[in-house]
Amino acid sequence: MTRRWQLQVATDFLRRPEVAFKAMRDAEARDNVNEAQFEQAGIDGDEFDEEYEDAFAEEGEEFDDPARIVHSWKKSMEFTDLIAICQGCIAGAARLVPKLRVHELTDAQTKVLENSLEKIRATTDWIETAAATGRVDLDEQLAQLLRGQ
User: Fold this and answer.
1) Which of 28, 30, 123, 134 is deepest in the core (most CB within 10 A)?
2) 74-123: pLDDT as tens digits
3) DSSP string computed for 33-66
4) pTM of the predicted model, to two decimals?
């Protein structure tokens, strides 16, 4: 498969709204697209800022950097996504846990559930630490746990 053909296939896929939406939820893909947009425009960041400010800022008006606004929206979206994941877990548990009273779990099912709960506890501790300290790095022990090792 030639590289040119691969690029055409990728471009065709990105024309599909559901594919583009999914791709833009991937931080690395989104950053690559943003970088490519600047490269395609042939304008480096400083030139763009100056041209934008010259074109849209009123005389004497404080200029609010669009990149800062977008970064703020991105942070808000990521926070909202994290809260949505937490709420999804809570809602799912609230719906399913009461149904457990009519089921007897096998030893294997109990073990799988215990392993999953251990991962959930470790992940919530990680989230809590990240929120309190700003450190978002995943330590090796947690990474191994989440990989199931």
Assistant:
1) 123
2) 888 888 998 999 999 999 999 988 888 878 889 999 999 999 999 999 89
3) HHHHHHHHHT--HHHHHHHHHHHHPPTTPPP--H
4) 0.50
